[in-house]
Amino acid sequence: MNKKETLVVKLGTSVLTAGSKKLNKAGMLEIVRQCAKEHAKGQRIIIVTSGAIAAGREYLNYPELPKNISSKQLLAAVGQSQLIQTWEKLFSIYSINIGQMLLTRADLEDRERFLNARDTLLALLDNGIIPIINENDAVATAEIKVGDNDNLSALVAILADADKLLLLTDIEGLYTANPHANPNAKLISDVYEIDDELRKIAGDSVSGLGTGGMATKVQAAAVASRAGISVTVASGVLADVIEKVFKNKAVGTCFHAQKTPLERRKQWIFGAPLAGELVLDSGAVKALLEKGSSLLPKGIIKVNGTFSRGEVLKVSDSEGKDLGHGVTRYSSDALDLIKGKHSREIYNILGYEYGSVAIHRDDLILN
């Protein structure tokens, strides 16, 4: 028998509704049946579910509402309870208890809240309870949203120290081109490295009716595989897909886990949603890539976004290439004032200082 493992299963709106306007309860029951079968073997399963807004529309009999954020939040507020009740009823058929967790970016971005969420998640798993997780769309604004459940599921996989992540969608996996438009498109079965070419393919591909397409699945795979978690993108209607993933059978597209995963603190840094961007000059890029240096304010030529000290930023070169992610020692306002300046000038400019570096090497992960 396979060793006990933890699997995160992410279900998009297109899978949960089977392309209709309402939840496809028969399809959901089939997923529950598969989960129950593995749960009985002692395997640990977490579900990241979309579908709250679709459930809200169905419950309210498809009302005509303004196309704005508050209407979506209204539907999510109504639909979230309907969605969790549906999952509860279906899992109760197999006498399995579930626990709901609603998360926002703020819960995963702050180190202490990240650890608290992790403790809750592991407590549920340790007690044989299947966590059902969704983004808290009823209260989340653009500033605190993860944005899509593909990336949320990757962060949840890191939270739970999961072995595998399964992204279920309405196509078989990642193709060399859009399979709906190109009959010569071929399925990519195995991915060992996510490069710019693969991201371009994913950007041209499509999947799902929700907020995530194939590009967000590749983003999620990059985060999870970097943390030592294998990621599979597969069809939500494939027979016994969950058992096949547990048994390491070839299905869909497998993004293989990196052999030297990041240590836990750096998993959090890499997984945390990005709050902004620092654009560097060529000298700073060379110092980071070739010398393993910390990032000094002098090497920063542009500060993008509004962020606080302690948030995670993208670090880019002048042509926009993503070099890595790191935790900033200074806010965006402070960095705007000290960018391009020598470290010895920080105190005179700001009237305070948190050290001579903008991002310390220990808080930086390069791609």
Protein model, in words:
This protein is α/β, with parallel strands linked by helices. It is 39% helix and 18% strand. The protein has helices at 13-17, 25-40, 52-59, 69-92, 105-109, 111-126, 149-159, 196-204, 214-226, 241-246, 264-271, 282-291, 332-338, 346-350, and strands at residues 6-11, 44-49, 98-103, 130-135, 164-169, 190-191, 230-235, 253-255, 276-280, 300-304, 312-316, 322-327, 364-366. The strands form two sheets. The protein has an eight-stranded mixed β-sheet, sandwiched between helices. A five-stranded mixed β-sheet has the order 10-9-11-12-13, sandwiched between helices. A hairpin with a 5-residue loop joins strand 11 and strand 12 (322-327). Helix 2 (25-40) crosses helix 4 (69-92), helix 3 (52-59) crosses helix 4 (69-92) and helix 8 packs antiparallel against helix 9. The model is unreliable at 208-212 (pLDDT under 50).
Looking at the overall shape, the CATH architecture of the largest domain is 3-Layer(aba) Sandwich
Oligomer: single chain
Radius of gyration: 22 Å
Shape: globular
Major sheet description:
8 strands, mixed
CATH fold group of the largest domain: Carbamate kinase
Estimate the strand proportion: 15-25%
- Kindly report how far apart the N and C termini lie: 36 Å
Q: How many distinct beta strands?
A: 13
Number of domains: 2
Number of helices: 14
Give short descriptive properties of this protein:
eight-stranded mixed sheet, alpha/beta, Archaeosine Trna-guanine Transglycosylase, Chain: A, domain 4, transferase, Carbamate kinase, five-stranded mixed sheet, nucleotide-binding, ATP-binding
